[in-house]
């Protein structure tokens, strides 16, 4: 198949394009900066973040069976934009629609849009989120991702194009950055962590598992559509996550059992209530639809995914 991928030189994009190339598909990468993609990929440099130019055919996308839209303005803890929601909408909503118009002009019959758990909201409704749950996003990033989902479903209905939305939770793997890398660094250095009493479970997905699920949706011969949640299928507690990371790194897990109420009190005093609430609250996704309808199963277990992540961390730290 001929598959176009936006954000192909990013964390998930590199894993996905490698899988697609391994399977013999022709991949074109829509990127702002060339040189960071798999050597087997044809890079198509574009001039803007919201794909307005390629929607106008400059440059032309070329023949395309499926578009995988990964590119996004990512979630930021401290956003310095004058109007964060407008900034997110410009890239994440209008950008997705512009990419969709380019794909339609190139003959695509399917679009796979990678959204986020944040399109659902914060926390969980007392059980793992299901694909058919009502969404209640609370921050500009989550709102923009949900609006992009809705805009693409309307686009697909109007133009007869299949739309498959993928909502991943926390993604980890070789090259992961931000909070997960910071947690690995703390464990590797033997820093005591006050997380021993947190029994909230949180879904995660190894980047290889996420890439494989996207590949399955992008290349499946039978029709696909709607929302799909992707997880490793093994939701660890926060303390269990630290212990699993420690095992993968060959380090002791130095967990201090600080009561959750104390942690939340510290969060209020330091102005980090939202961060502490996210850390101490459960957030799980029900990923059974991919398994039951498509027969998909994650190729890597959590232990295998963390082992690969730790191996890469040790090489590059």
From TrEMBL:
Domain of life: Bacteria
Cross-referenced Pfam families: Epimerase (PF01370)
GO cellular component: cytoplasm
Enzyme class: isomerase
Keywords: Isomerase
InterPro entries (alphabetical): Epimerase_deHydtase (IPR001509), NAD(P)-bd_dom_sf (IPR036291), NAD(P)-dependent_oxidoreduct (IPR051783)
Domain (NAD-dependent epimerase/dehydratase): residue spans on this chain: 3-229
Claim: Isomerase is one of the keywords in the record: yes
Listed GO MF terms: aldehyde dehydrogenase (NAD+) activity; isomerase activity
Residue ranges of coiled coil: none
Keyword Transmembrane helix set for record: no
The protein's Enzyme Commission number: 5.1.3.26
The protein's name in its UniProt record: N-acetyl-alpha-D-glucosaminyl-diphospho-ditrans, octacis-undecaprenol 4-epimerase
Provenance organism: Paraburkholderia solisilvae
Gene that encodes it: gnu
